[in-house]
Design brief:
By secondary structure, the chain is an alpha/beta fold. 26% of the residues lie in helices and 26% in strands. Strand 12, helix 3 and strand 13 form a beta-alpha-beta unit. The radius of gyration is 20 Å and the shape is globular.
Amino acid sequence: MWINNGWVFQENGTFAKRDIATRKDKIADTSDDERVIDAENLYVIPGLTDIHFHGCMGYDFCDGTKEALDTITEYQLSRGITTICPASMTYGEERLTAIFQTVANYDNRKGSEIVGINMEGPFISQEKKGAQNPMFIQSPDVNMFIRLQEAAHGMIKLCDLAPELPGAMDFIQRLAKDVQISLAHTDADYETAMGAFHAGVCHVTHLYNGMNPFHHREPGVVGAASDFTDAYVELIGDGIHVSPASVRSTLKMIGEQRLVLISDSLRSCGMSDGQYELGGQAVFKKGKYTTLADGTLAGSSVDLMDVLKTVVLEMNIPLETAITCAAVNSAKSIGIYDTYGSLEKGKRANILLLDRDLNLKYIIKDGVICHRF
């Protein structure tokens, strides 16, 4: 397939008007067939990668069924999110084992590709649990993680933890070479967070949410994430969890090469207002807001394509920056950038064509047109 005359997103973060070709499922110098898409006046960008979301269309990743995964992956692909690393919730080992085994044995090429698992619980703080179920919160356990990773056939790409918990530093030192460890749902101060970074942590889960706020005398995890420049930092870009001004400020503080846009979407994504479930707790969707009964924010009801459009069209973030944060950095942060995340020769031909209003016109996965609008 040839895609001609489009404004193609380059690896250096700029757009250039040029043609690109696919051969089988890869980006190539020349095409292996005569199909041509005229991309005049269209943006041509890599498929998005969401490394932190829970569900959509009434299903949750933790439902642990093929039906749930089929629905989730097919919806995500229809929205231009071609690769996903869905997040688990805080459950006990038996439930997590069953969920991870289902994912490890899952094979459906009709939807987005599941490239990993984001293990968000249970090694988190009771004080900053957010919408996580407090019944299953526990201190970090190395042997438990090893058993879960075996059940997942090595698919756990991110493991979240609160570094102030007993055993956390030993966990980091023993496992940092085997999995990306992320600070999450934590009551840690600046010194503890910096100690965790130096011990091997390389990621921060949904900055500002599930942690102490930044204060000029107590900078906490936010200040540590700014100072430690070797960590990727997630940000929920729905316009609710983090205000537009704070999104713009965070980009200046963290830099567009480290920020990762995520949706943190729940099963309510793509659904009408009403009551849903998250980790055994009732959640309520009203417009863009999804909360627990007490009003605590409980993830979002928008997908990553919605996030991309929101930060560009409503927050005045440059499109090039938004793509970097939603496709490039997300792939880099979980170690899959050698295969996904850009439109360079040899990479998987996961390609989106957008009009000037950022509406999807074509979705191409593995060199095949999946959706045309």
